[in-house]
Amino acid sequence: MIRIKGREYNIIAGALGWIWLLVTIVPIYYIVVTSLRESNAVYADNPLSFPEHPTLSAYERVFANDFLMYVKNSVIVTFVTVLVILLVCIPAAYVIVRRTDVGTRRLYKIFISGLAIPMQATIIPVYYLIIKIGLYDTLWALILPSAAFAIPITILILTNFLRDVPQSLFEAMAVDGASEFKTMIQLALPMVKPAVITVAIYDALNVWNGFLFPLILTQSTENRVIPLSLWLFQGQFTVDVPGILAAVVISVLPILAAYIIGRRQMVAGLTAGFGK
Amino acid sequence: MTEKAKKTGGRRRGLHDGGGRESLHKGPSLWYAAPAMVLFGVFALIPLIGVVVLSFMNWDGLGAVTWNGLGNWKEMLGDPLTLNGLKLTLILTIACWAVQTPVSILLGVFMAGKQKYRAFLAVFFFLPLLFSSTAVAIAFKNILDPQFGIGKAFGWKWLEQNFLGDPKTALWTLILVVSWCFVPLHSLLYQGAVRQIPASLYEAARIDGAGTVRQFFSITLPQLKYTFATDSTLMIVGSLTYFDLVYVMTAGGPGNATRLMPLDMYIKGFKSYDMGGASVIGVLILAMGIVISLLLNRLSGADKMESQMEGV
């Protein structure tokens, strides 16, 4: 093989980096500038030019369309789902790490096996179940299945972190006569806080962006969440290209804000379960 | 995908066993796990069995569920759309893997470098991950529009064709959009893995006079093989379930050119009201996912772990 000196190799790597930057940025730039364009300029202007008369009217049209209610629904569903996930998974992960008997290990295996299974293939029985329980077209219809599907990855991450808590600390708590519940809350929880944040971000992103459950499990406008509303906008606003893209931009803004504030946690959250 | 977790988990448990085994203390009550078991049982395990049961039933989504024996299976396996979906899903899975893996490895290695500008670029690389699949699908539908999409910006006739409207290009266009979405995620995984490669290996290579390219092929790539196995499983099982992106971008069209299995399942169930038939497709997707996961797990065998740790 021809040996290339360090500097020359860096040119190859650098070129690759800048090319990928273009691949990433150009579509996003197009979305933003088009959302600022006047509707009648969309067909006339060069698609990548900055609009001559930038306008926020497309955003006004989106907000005139109940979009704030969909944002509210998405916030509720995301928040409650993550809360449910953490409430059920933290104690479960605690048990899995603290007990060594065969039954517990088997339980762990059952949870973890969910990772290798394409759960979306089960949407039809989920739909059946939601109708039978009487939750169809409620926000709970989105919360419960989303939480259940997130259990495998959440338990995997939490147990991986909990295993790093030194046994001696647990023993010290036991010697002090602390109950298991107290040990969990006062010892285990603070020590795995980074993992809890990571996994909460991961689960929140998945729920916030989820489309399939809202599509099949809700129907009415009052229970609409952002991804579903984007899709419906697209059907209604077929000719209003800036309007559709403005809705896309608005749907990303909360996540972008979170990314700017806590990029490190977010990146950790995105790769949850693999970085560790 | 669970392989790595199991390994690290196993190793850690081993460590604890070595140092002073706990007394007879059995740990907290199993009741702590009960809420998770109930939620997982009701909304994940029961549907898993339910999809198999429903594949033998007749159900239109509203009325009563009635026994249909092997009827759905015969009908679905004889339906050319099922075969079409299977074929398209296999093409998509293989192509997505083949496009994303090399790009993700290169970008992961690139981002693992300590140079300032690389960290700076990485901040932008992750942006696609912030978009929901629906948002990406809608954005690219417009971006690829022959009337007002990006193609018009350069005045090249080739770029102005209707990529999503032509059955010959639609699936390949989808594959590229999927890659745009998910390459950042996979490159993140590789970045983490590259950073864990012991620096001593590179030092030794440098002393032996190996250049950067040589180091990439003889150290970086071999050291990435476990991440490669994990990441490939993630990618492949993921490919079996792409629904949002495809549904919003093409809805299966033009014709049935992008009617992948998950989409076929959705249309049969929720558009043609044949929930039994849709469940058959669901079972097929499940079976493929499980078989592929097991196969990849086997291939990346846990027993090889030690050889990787040798000489470190």
TrEMBL record, chain A:
Biological processes, Gene Ontology terms: transmembrane transport
Keywords assigned: Cell membrane, Membrane, Transmembrane, Transmembrane helix, Transport
Signal peptide: none
Membrane topology of the entry: Multi-pass membrane protein
Annotated Gene Ontology cellular component terms: plasma membrane
Location in or out of the cell: Cell membrane
Alphabetized Gene3D superfamilies for the sequence: MetI-like
TM region(s), chain numbering: 12-32, 75-96, 108-130, 142-162, 183-202, 241-261
Domain called ABC transmembrane type-1: residue spans: 71-262
Family: Belongs to the binding-protein-dependent transport system permease family.
Protein name: ABC transporter permease
From TrEMBL, chain B:
Assigned keywords, A-Z: Cell membrane, Membrane, Transmembrane, Transmembrane helix, Transport
CDD domains xrefs: TM_PBP2
Transmembrane segments: 30-57, 88-112, 119-140, 170-190, 234-255, 275-296
ABC transmembrane type-1 domain segment(s): 86-296
Gene Ontology CC terms, in alphabetical order: plasma membrane
Homology family: Belongs to the binding-protein-dependent transport system permease family.
This protein's name: ABC transporter
Lineage, highest ranks first: Bacteria, Bacillati, Actinomycetota, Actinomycetes, Bifidobacteriales
